[in-house]
Amino acid sequence: MARPQAAEQNLGMRASPTHRRLRSESGFAASRRKWLFALSAAATLPLGAAATGLPPAPRSPDQDIIVHVQRAGAEVIVEVDCPVRAPVPLVWEVLTDYDNMANFVSDLQFSAIEHRNDNVLTVRQAGKVTRGLFTFAYNSVREVELVPLTEIRSRLISGDLKASAFTTRIVDLDGFVHIRNSGRYTPNFWVPPLVGPALIEGETRKHYAEIRAEILRRAARQTASVASD
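Above: the chain sequence. Below: its structure as tokens.
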């Protein structure tokens, strides 16, 4: 008579379909949360939202900022071309203003130069991305090499990604300065193949739109100052 009772106990220990489904949903939610951190790499680096369950990003008015995102195996490749009508020195000033960058890039909560050795900087940044009811924090420490007025080279030292390396070039072309950023990073979590790159593209465009807006604000202040003299 003990055997049927033991069998019943063993059957009771097995996960019910409902329990298995809940565990599966919990694992999916964790995976969905993790891949959002990948968006912080692209622009120092910008973020996005999960494949399902989150509202899509609103259409940006800054469609002249060209952003291409694609997956290459485990890596995500990002290319940006952001035009702005402003002097090269002013564009350089804003792009390298790491100590004040959290004041004009909305996803950043902290940004500072921790160490400087000539044109090589150690920059720490932390921030969060909010999409609908979801908020996700991220942080990074990067080595930044400056080629004055021309190029910014950045590589990840530590943070929420496995690896990240980007180069930003300032190109004066046809009366516009083009901020051209290109590079790749390796997330330590899964990125949805179709929705993921599209969301990264939207958040990256937003990031550069905010940088461009700061450049134009400073340019307007300079113009007003000259006019008042």
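The beta strands are 66-72, 75-84, 108-117, 120-131, 134-147, 151-159, 161-173, 176-187.
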